[in-house]
Amino acid sequence: MDQTQPGKKLLVIDDEPSTLKMLRRLLGVYGYSVLTAGSGEEGLEVFRNERPPLVITDIRMPGMDGIEVLRHLREISPEVEMIVITGHGDMELAVRSLRNAASDFINKPIRREALEIALQRAEEKIELKRKIRDHAQELESRVEKATADLSHQCRRLEVLLKIGKQAGEIPTYGKMSEFLQEKIESTTGLKCPRIMVLNTIGDGLIGGHSNSRLPKASALAAEMIKGLKGGRHLLTSQELEKIQLRVEAADQESVTMLPIDTEEGDTVGAALVVASGQRDEEDLKFAGLLLSLVAGALRRAVVQEEEISNLRQIVEKEKFGNMIGRHEKMRRIFNLISNVAASDATVLVLGESGTGKELAARRLHELSSRSSGPFIVLDCAAYPQTLLEGEMFGHEKGAFTGAVHARKGLFELAQGGTLFLDEAGDIPLPSQVKLLRALQFKEFHRLGSETVTRVDVRVIAATARDLREEIERGTFREDLYYRLHVIPIIMPPLRERLSDLPLLVSHFLERLSGGSTKKKIRRDAMQVLFNHDWPGNIRELENAIEHAFIMSGTDGIKAADLPAYLHGYGKSSRPASDGLEHVERSHVIKVLQECRGNKIMAARRLKISRSTLYRKLEQFDIQ
């Protein structure tokens, strides 16, 4: 967390001296001037005297508890931001505290990361309130001097009060650019023909306004934007031509580039505005303030969009036909499929239900010399013995009651291609004998026929059963097992390849979006997915994502949008964040290895700053 201004006041109320001591030390490192109180009553007295803008209070204390403290604090100062400390069993109290105007809550034992996040949120709210308050005061003074401007200024105030929340709900930077253009033009006398947004590295522009076919012009525009350094720049026609931007402006109008700066001073983009008339200076100032209030939300939207784009590229890179995975077990399976596809040997695909056995079979077919031939699927568990044999081998007219026409079986229909026997472990014993002969000699008889039918077909079988156990029970022939088990492919369950979850989720969301803007999945929802054991494997994950996609709004998929049974269902005892952190740590290590330890190059590849990379190296204990 960034250091705050030295001496900035913060009050901590807790009846445990050890907690007070720990927070005084930690908050002092952040630059706070820490006030402490050992009870609710003492805390209120200190607050009345010192009026700190931020208070951290425990919920459970003897005498006046944290809930009562919150009510009194809010009565004394409606502007104060409050963070409550709760125990793991105090979720009901935490909810009550939020209803009593607490800004946030953190659990005991207090983790530094959780404290930093809560402080950052509180400081952002304090700063936003300060900005709104300051600007409101400025507007009020103007209203007193010029009543004719009352309606216009009230409109501006309304926009400022709402714009932060509104911007935070906009899912993409493209939509946010349109939002900013509309707000500037509706609250000022300016025209805003273009919003230019920097990529996270800052070496070019992104989005529909970036003119992506002109990378050189994009780079020049990026350099010009970064050179603004908090000020604005009046553009000449030569500069507009140089960066390949066409802006319609009359002779008496000027084109100004306004920076979009975050509170930390980072420039995330610029707005081009066309100004004319006597209200220009005031309008330019207001437009600049408006842009600064949404800069943080714009940067977050850019980062998220680029992360989605990067993940989409990773998904495409890690695709193997319709199979997706970068886990070591999946890479081995991809290599095995590539190696055996050219052979006509029988393949047995093993694995739990929903692990993608049919996808593996299809990929074997696609990579084989039979790819131009048919790929026929037979679900062996869906038919009784007599019907199953008719499906496999066909029948002659009159072979049985209802056989009014001769019919080819799937072995014949798969001629020159591949026959996939799904759920082969469910084939009845009498049918297993006929299947064994068909596999051995590539020939069979249709039902009701004495004529031998010869075929050129590759057979791939799959089952979720343990066929050796079935052999022991006497329900599966051992000779057929060895005929099918020439080349085994064992599909891992999803719980053994959780690092592939983000890729799979991104793939399903891409498909469900159908070409429109892809929905985002929030971190809390991803944590729920990582904490589940997935007994139904990829099929269960796909159904869960489809459910969440339908239930979610435009602000992305939240944990609450996922099926209810996923919450708390997982058998694993790992913390919810472990899966996400494992994936992120593995990705950082992989990029560092590819960059041969060069941290500057790795930071560029990861599209983060060097300071952020160093924090991640420390967080993940990467040497």
What keyword list fits this structure?
623 residues; alpha/beta; Rossmann fold; Beta-Lactamase; 5 domains; 5-stranded parallel β-sheet; 5-stranded antiparallel β-sheet; elongated; disordered N terminus
Task: Kindly report the spatial arrangement of strands forming the biggest sheet.
Answer: 2-1-3-4-5
What's the CATH architecture of the largest domain? 2-Layer Sandwich
Q: What do we call the CATH homologous superfamily of the largest domain? A: GAF domain
**Separation of termini?**
22 Å
Helix tally equals 23
Write the CATH fold name of the largest domain: Beta-Lactamase
Question: Which outline best applies?
Answer: elongated
Proportion in helices? 40-55%
Number of domains: 5
Which residues form runs of ≥5 with pLDDT under 50?
1-6, 208-214, 569-578
Largest sheet, strands/sense/barrel: 5 strands, parallel
- The CATH class designation of the largest domain is Alpha Beta
Summing up helix and strand content along with how strands pair, one would put the structural category as alpha/beta
